[in-house]
Amino acid sequence: MESLNALLQGMGLMHLGAGQAIMLLVSLLLLWLAIAKKFEPLLLLPIGFGGLLSNIPEAGLALTALESLLAHHDAGQLAVIAAKLHCAPDVHAIKEALALALPSVQNQMENLAVDMGYTPGVLALFYKVVIGSGVAPLVIFMGVGAMTDFGPLLANPRTLLLGAAAQFGIFATVLGALTLNYFGLISFTLPQAAAIGIIGGADGPTAIYLSGKLAPELLGAIAVAAYSYMALVPLIQPPIMKALTSETERKIRMVQLRTVSKREKILFPVALLLPDAAPLLGMFCFGNLMRESGVVERLSDTVQNGLINIVTIFLGLSVGAKLVADKFLQPQTLGILLLGVIAFGIGTAAGVLMAKLLNLCSKNKINPLIGSAGVSAVPMAARVSNKVGLESDPQNFLLMHAMGPNVAGVIGSAIAAGVMLKYVLAM
């Protein structure tokens, strides 16, 4: 009987809390969306499975050494940590003190926990190496750069303004998050608001990069919202596009794009480097330079395929490490999901309205539908612009025209992230 009791106690289900049960269901939902509905499967599948691993009771796969120590509730060890932090020797007080402590102090406490015999879980290690260091989003940006053709953007430079206009969604969402905080509805700090705002750029790697720097505690919710809404672009954008354009505007046929020389394609990424967005744009431009130079095809192929696929796996599992109950099941998560869809809507509308504004002072008209491609969900947003255009005129192919603002959106979201990172951290 004692053996049976010991066996039952060793089973995870005996220690399953309500929060863990909910998060297991959330993780299964992400897996279902990835497999059955094919919603961003390359990211949602590893994120969902990482969430499952993170919420296995008693496994601690997503816990750092210090979090494992706190979960163990050893009074003597808690007293040692509390003495270092000058707080009461209980878990709640220690967590509050750690949240206010400098990163150097947090690292000291982590090392102290390791010295006491605790080790970080495998997902926590993945997170530290892949996201904590900022490496994974940068490598993915390099791969995206190697897959990007700047030709449509260079052939019609005005579309750069459409990509810039779509970034209004980012800054409007920052203001929205701060407004919720001002009225006491949901508490968000400025760094958290900035991290949430980047969802409006419809750029998953940028969202992960910025939230990892500014609000790692919200990274799981922000990443899930970003990739979920990117998958829902074909549902979110068309009603907004149709509401803001007339049938006549949707039938506008744009002039044929000129041929862009190889020299232009090589010089553009070199000239694009900006100090505020140097990490993201630097990797993006380096990837594109490998593609356009034509002299390192083997490296370009590796970055576009093998390397980006490997990093995507570990990035997804690392994001899944943040899908734990005490971090995800917060009122802030609901606010993030709400603000995320509003951000997409504002970005889409701003791009369309900017195209209409440009048409007021231009001889060569722009089809306003391509303005919605200014959000940087590449190439999905461009395909949506093309699809809505074909509904009004089956012979009006807008895909290549829409790729211009789509690429501009990638550049714009990276610049917005760099600017927010610089100024928010300086405050």
From TrEMBL:
Pfam families: OAD_beta. It comes from the Bacteria. It is a multi-pass membrane protein. Signal peptide: none annotated. InterPro entries: OadB_MmdB. GO terms for molecular function: decarboxylation-driven active transmembrane transporter activity; lyase activity. Keywords: Cell membrane, Ion transport, Membrane, Sodium, Sodium transport, Translocase, Transmembrane, Transmembrane helix, Transport. It is found in: Cell membrane. The keyword Cell wall biogenesis/degradation does not apply. GO terms for cellular component: plasma membrane. Its cofactor is Na(+). Its EC number is 7.2.4.2. It is an enzyme of class 7 (translocase). One of its GO terms (biological process) is sodium ion transport. The chain crosses the membrane at residues 12-35, 125-148, 160-183, 218-245, 266-286, 306-324, 336-355, 407-425. Belongs to the GcdB/MmdB/OadB family. NCBIfam families: Na_pump_decarbB, PRK15475.1, PRK15476.1, PRK15477.1. Heterotrimer of an alpha, a beta and a gamma subunit. Catalyzes the decarboxylation of oxaloacetate coupled to Na(+) translocation. This is Oxaloacetate decarboxylase beta chain. It comes from Salmonella enterica subsp. enterica serovar 4,[5],12:b:-.
